[in-house]
Design brief:
alpha/beta, Arc Repressor Mutant, subunit A, 9 strands, 7-stranded mixed beta sheet, binds S-adenosylmethionine, 2 domains, Rossmann fold
């Protein structure tokens, strides 16, 4: 999730965006319209209305019946969806706008849009707790964001990992791929719900994978669908040959300590693979991409909050283009660093 740190990957722009306010709408109101539209979509999703509308054209009463939802709520929701451009209306019959189907049925390939609706709802629920942390300057509890939020985050990047992690990101380093094919021990640090761990384990059945995360609830979810060559734990083993840190490094509250532990655990020739959002490090260049708003706001609300610790916030954020990360890697004894600009807006570091 390019959330600035963990950020939403940039989906391929669609040529025509039905329902978007035209360019004459003042910025503030265009944003307000978009916020309300997405909130309404997420709300209707939770009430079963999104699925009911996707079943096919229908009157408001029919769609309410399909969703087992209140008729007035359904009518209001359908009108809001027409106003937002997600639905079409013709003489009392509603249908999904054909241009919007992929976003509403979850088939959009680059990112799990339905997970994003869960994310929007879960983030809304966490705002008071996040504000408490930011105002008090305290370090967050490990479970500040909660299971619903963690579950949504775990799904957002799953399509990207399925499509690009093995064939593009890891394939950029022949030696890493050869090791994984031959069979090795891999720690996926900050694995969350294990989407990436699972993709790697299925692609490299002769290797052994250990997904590690401090979030025990996320690990429980990960275990449910894990192939046989994967296990999960809240702490890494004493040694391993390869470590992946995918969209997680900027979340670590004590990154230098993590790097020191990894350096001690990797044998000579061991390799660390870190994927972080591929900012240029130039605010003017980076913010020219409208999707950067998603990444930066997510960093503010989520990544930067997780990165706080009693001894100070992790200052190694990807927005500097990787300068601080490279410095930290060198200080931890990683002398050879190569990078690959990976699909989905991530920069992949191979550190040895
Ligand atoms: C944005 S999520 C990424 C999860 C997963 N790699 C993915 O891309 O779907 C960041 C993860 O880092 C984990 N995390 C944060 N600090 C950690 C630490 N010190 N040790 C292990 N995991 C940590 C969080 O619990 C969270 O699951």
């Amino acid at each position: 999730m390019r959330h600035g740190g963990s950020r939403l990957s940039r989906p391929t722009p669609v040529a025509t965006v039905a329902g978007m306010p035209d360019s004459g709408t003042p910025r503030f109101f265009a944003d307000l319209i978009s916020w309300y539209a997405l909130e309404a979509l997420a709300f209707g999703d939770a009430l079963g209305l999104r699925s009911a509308l996707l079943q096919g054209p229908g009157t408001s009463a029919e769609i309410a019946l399909r969703a087992d939802a209140d008729p007035r709520t359904t009518a209001t929701w359908l009108a809001a969806m027409v106003a937002a451009g997600y639905a079409k209306h013709d003489t009392g019959v509603f249908r999904v706008d054909p241009d919007q189907v992929a976003f509403l049925d979850g088939s959009f390939p680059a990112v799990d849009t339905l997970a994003l609706l869960d994310f929007v709802r879960a983030m809304g629920a966490r705002v008071p707790a996040v504000l408490d942390v930011l105002r008090s300057g305290s370090a967050p509890d490990h479970d500040l964001f909660g299971a619903e939020f963690g579950e949504a985050v775990g799904r957002v990047n799953a399509p990207l990992y399925a499509g690009a992690l093995v064939t593009d990101w890891l394939a950029a380093d022949d030696e890493v791929t050869a090791r994984l094919e031959a069979g090795t021990t891999v720690v996926d640090l900050g694995c969350g719900s294990g989407a990436a761990t699972r993709v790697m384990a299925e692609a490299f059945p002769t290797s052994t994978f250990i997904g590690v995360d401090r979030d025990a609830a996320a690990l429980d979810r990960a275990r449910r669908t894990a192939p046989g060559n994967v296990s999960f734990a809240t702490a890494p083993p004493a040694s391993y040959q390869v470590v992946t840190i995918l969209d997680s490094f900027h979340h670590f509250a004590d990154p230098d300590a993590v790097l020191a532990q990894i350096r001690a655990a990797l044998p000579p020739g061991g390799v660390m693979v870190i994927a972080e959002s591929s900012y240029e490090g130039d605010i003017d260049v980076d913010t020219a991409d409208p999707f950067s708003v998603i990444g930066l706001a997510s960093a503010l609300l989520y990544c930067d909050v997780e990165a706080r610790s009693p001894s100070g916030t992790n200052q190694i954020a990807p927005q500097d283009g990787g300068v601080a990360l490279r410095r930290a890697l060198a200080a931890a004894g990683f002398s050879t660093i190569t990078t690959h600009e990976g699909t989905g807006g991530y920069r992949v570091y191979f550190a040895r």
